[in-house]
């Protein structure tokens, strides 16, 4: 491979993104917000049994997607707080992202060698509206860092990737981040082999640049 054909940091990052997580107090509200911004209406994803949440999805490419996630009124409130701080949300926002992996145990070993311990691998599942059950495994940093800028990792195993059945029409062009302490967050991302660039900002923020029917837009 010659120098001019080597992938850039931005290209590598886009290949690392499994999905972006857009959390909202109400799923219909979140779907409407994304449709108004981009011109694409998300397709139903399904419930997270026991988690008290449900989602809707829009593909951002063949193997990446945007997840809109919200409380599920058809489930009883879970005994523990819902994921992604959903219980305390006052407005919809891009709260975090998931990075791809196909070997969580090897990832854990490499991360620990680089001084970033990861939590235990956790299983998850949900049923699509068509009855297909998706199963996955995830892990994240053992201690909270980065306010959502440091992702969790996901392995879909033998399940079909959700982007394959999600609404289409959007493309992820760029993902960047801001944080009051960019050096610390950048150190953790680099130790995990991730190419997300973090700039100094007043508040922690993920910013996705997305191309769709309504042109190129930013989602925060």
Structure description:
With 220 residues, the protein is an alpha+beta fold. The chain has one domain (3-219): 2,3-Dihydroxybiphenyl 1,2-Dioxygenase, domain 1 (Roll). Helices cover 18% and strands 36% of the residues. It contains four helices and twelve strands, in the order H-E-H-E-E-E-E-H-E-E-E-E-H-E-E-E. It has helices at residues 9-16, 27-38, 104-113, 182-191; strands at residues 17-23, 43-48, 53-61, 64-71, 93-100, 122-127, 133-139, 152-155, 171-179, 198-200, 205-212, 215-219. Strands 2-3-4-1-5-8-7-6 form an eight-stranded mixed β-sheet. It has a four-stranded mixed β-sheet with strand order 10-9-11-12. The radius of gyration is 17 Å and the shape is globular. It starts with 8 loop residues before the first helix and ends with a strand. The model is unreliable at 1-5 (pLDDT under 50).
